[in-house]
Amino acid sequence: VEASYNRIEEVDGEVQAFLTLDKENALQQAKELDEARGNDDAALFGLPIGVKDNIVTKGLRTTCGSQFLKNFNDPLYNATVVEKLSDAKSVTIGKLNMDEFAMGSSNENSSYAATRNPWNTDYVPGGSSGGSAASVAAGEVFFSLGSDTGGSIRQPAAFCGVVGLKPTYGRVSRFGLVAFASSLDQIGPITRTVEDNAYLLETIAGYDNMDSTSANVDVPKYTKALTGDVKGLKIAVPKEYLSEGVTSEVRESVMAALKKYEELGATWEEVSLPHSKYAVATYYLLASSEASANLARFDGVRYGVRAENAETMLDMFKQSRAQGFGDEVKRRIMLGTFALSSGYYDAYYKKAQQVRTLIKNDFEKVLEDYDVIVGPTTPTPAFKVGEKVDDPLTMYANDILTIPVNLAGVPGISVPCGFSSEGLPIGLQIIGKHFDESTVYRAAHAFE
Ligand code: GLN
User: Fold this and answer.
1) What pLDDT, on a 0 to 100 scale, did the predictor assign at position 370?
2) Cα 151 to ligand 1 centroid, rounded to whole Å
3) How far apart are CA 200 and CA 49, in angstroms?
4) Which of 101, 108, 152 to mutate to test the pocket of ligand 1 (most atoms within 8 A of CB)?
5) Does 260 participate in catalysis according to the annotation?
6) 3-state secondary structure (DSSP) of residue 220
7) Start and end of every Amidase domain (predicted)?
8) Contact, 284 vs 335, CB < 8 A?
9) Backbone angles phi, psi at 14, to 5 degrees
10) Which residues, listed in sequence order, are joined to residue 48 by a DSSP beta bridge?
11) Which regions of the chain are under pLDDT 70?
12) Residue 39: what pLDDT?
């Protein structure tokens, strides 16, 4: 824990991964654990962990990257995942920067600071869990938690050269995760190695009666799946994942990875996910609709900083929201409110739900015949700070290869698979069947 803080003091001025640190308390916790040590074999005993700032931590400020929650200094409870981490005797050392309310792909939508990519600080770390990925890449922590609604764990993991898994929807409790789009959000681990990742998922996964969407499905020992053996593994490679927009360097890295799988005894074939071209449009309708409902609670009364000098109650709501939310959050709330409004609901929201089913069916059909789906995590490596910030549509398009996985609800991991000529990491995405994280980990570990 001490080494972690030393490293943070050394590099975080530049990387800016952490929003809130609690050194005294964390050192105290570590000391108490050490004193009571005995023969403790808790998997994460004494390990320092960073937590994305949309996951509620008792007594530790939780801002969601938003000025609206800048005073949420003393949450009254822990998210279920944080309780589980503490039961496994790890030490939560601080809260990690993110795009405001997890809306973004570069961390530039944080209302506090823009986290930088540790490989080259002119580049973004990805988002929205940019702080979670950068903190691991910079060696500030070896374990962090992120959340993934449309790619927010896998995309920053790819940009920062670390391992990030979005579990199956329902695998990990969302209790205490500030909701963005409830039918898509999942918490997941970001680590340096696949093995670490498996340990962390083992710790946080499982049924929770505080989350009605958490699934009552047994949690296997994921670390047991890391056999190194992928002989006979059947890999599907969607042609849509290597087409237009994917840079030649990314394509070459993925092809090299497939070659390695062949050498290890796996086989691969090209398949099609024909509806994935509608995924970005579908996602932005559904995610924004859900966000517009979820974010209604931030009204300056129940949650959020209250605007001063308002004359009437309605005025107070309006001013609090106008001052508290950043531009991207407002854009999504307006888009979602529009899509859900009467007269438009059938044309947009309902249509998007129907297309979501087609996308999910595409994945299920391919995964009937194959063990995993493999492709790039992102079409390009990290882009420069400022490059896309004024162009939301280009920013949205960056998630084209991660979003379909959330819409389908299946698990997906990003593992490093090479570097661009500029020395920036490239990520390989491995997607599995519902609740079959074991095979995803096995495939990722053999490749690593
Ligand atoms: N970048 C996507 C968005 O802005 C995904 C974010 C996420 O997964 N939280 O919505």
Assistant:
1) 98
2) 6
3) 10
4) 152
5) no
6) coil
7) 1-440
8) yes
9) -90, -45
10) 91
11) 39
12) 66
Coil/strand/helix, residue 236: strand
Is residue 423 a contact partner of residue 169, using CB atoms and an 8 Å limit? no
- What interface predicted TM-score (ipTM) does this complex get? 0.97
- 3-class secondary-structure state, position 235: strand
The label of the residue with tokens 């570590």 reads: 30
Cα–Cα distances (Å) from 127 to 74, 225, 371, in that order, read 26, 29, 28
User: Could you identify the residue written with the tokens 């080259």?
Assistant: 120
Task: Give per-residue pLDDT as tens, 7-59.
Answer: 999 999 999 999 999 999 999 999 999 888 776 778 899 999 999 999 999 99
* Helix boundaries (H) for 46-129: 80-87
Three-state DSSP class for 166? strand
Would you call 52 a catalytic residue per the annotation? yes
Which residues, including other chains, have CB under 8 Å from residue 46's CB and lie 6 or more apart? Answer: 1, 30, 33, 34, 89, 90, 91
Tokens read off for 123? 């580049």
The one catalytic residue in 4, 105, 106, 152 is 152
Partners of 427 in the beta sheet? 416
**Options 128, 173, 288, 289, the catalytic residue:** 128
Q: How many Cα atoms sit within 13 Å of 107 on the Cβ side? A: 38
Residue 394: predicted pLDDT: 87
